[in-house]
Amino acid sequence: MRYNFPTLRASFSIIRISLACLLIPLGSPAVATAAGESRLGPLAERPNWKSLDGFQKTITRDDFVALLDQVYAPGGAWMNVIRVESDRALVMMSSDTAFWELRFAPSREQAQPVRRFWRGRAELGGSTADEPLQGIKIAIDPGHIGGEWAKIEERWFQIGNSMPVTEGDMTLYVANLLRERLEKLGATVSLTRSKPKLVTSMRPRQLHSEALLSLMDKNQEITPVSLQREADRLFYRVAEIRRRSRLVNSSLKPDLVLCLHFNAEAWGNEAHPTLSEKNHLHFLVTGAFSAEELSYEDQRLNMLQKLLSRAYPEELAVTERLARAMASATGLPPYEYIGGNTIKVGKSPYIWARNLLANRLFHSPVVYLEPYVMNNREVFARIQAGDYEGLRKVGGKMQPSIYREYVDSVVQGLVDYYSSN
Q1: The whole model's pTM is what?
Q2: Which CATH number applies to 121-419?
Q3: What would the DSSP string read from start to end of 68-123?
Q4: Domain map (residue ranges) of the chain
């Protein structure tokens, strides 16, 4: 089986490419994948399979297959690109003739230790009653960007003359409150961004050639409008997240990453957005790669990095504590995915496995939080009320600041988890 970048499928495609290329400004960097090479996601670096060599003989065959089937690639999604034998697995690299070999441990007792920069709860120690998070390195990723970029990343809405709701600014505000609280409890905390500013140096005008290739890969119509929209998407959703992942994996090297978000329901007309009665809560851990997603070589490597580092048990365990604490504090029901590539994992109704760029690129265990529906009537009122200490009457009842409720419940969940070591 060969996964070629679909640029030469038919003469019509060639004509379409030639016409579309006229839309690309001169000097734009091109990242086209040559015919015969493997399929790569937008802005992905060439996969370095040798980076996985340190995981040789660290996992048994049974544990490897169980993690594939139950978490990372359920429903046999992995079978087109991974061949499992009695003592090894062969993973397709750039083509169906190039494979990376993973040698299995004969048994769990004989497995080699897993080498990684992050530490799980069992490897941490030295905490005290006053500093239950002592020694833990936590990176906080305030989701999205906010500020002047809030509209282009489609994380902005306004009802009448109300204060605009901008998710990137809200997650950053929560992150700064959370950082202060966690540091007082002994944790070493870093943020992937400390301002409503970009981490990436790229801009949409530099990504037109990549946008063209992305649209062709998805078999989508290529027009000046669609090309610009795709360049914008690659800028705020791909280039920015990839840059943050390099910061986390190469510099910060935390034991845990908290990806902070707020959720939303469809609000209809951008000029006249509507409020919803729906409000819910859920969490995401890395998993549920589809066969289509695993046809990309970079995603195959990303999945195996997470699987072989044993991120899943730690992700699930800490997320279950956070889910319990946040569900208790907010009283929100669990969100239910209908369709799409997601599966429920663990015992909590609030936790799902899903393949997102952020959670698969961060090498550390990742908790991806999605509380509150921003355009829910009550949540909207709480956002308009801003931050405050104590309780106020908002939406007809006494409530804490939505930001402090968010922070308090995350802190409670982390303390519960790491104190039970």
Answers
A1: 0.89
A2: 3.40.630.40
A3: IIIIISTTTTTTTTEEE-SSEEEEE-SSTT-EEEEEPBSSSTTPPPPP-S---GGG
A4: 11-103, 121-419
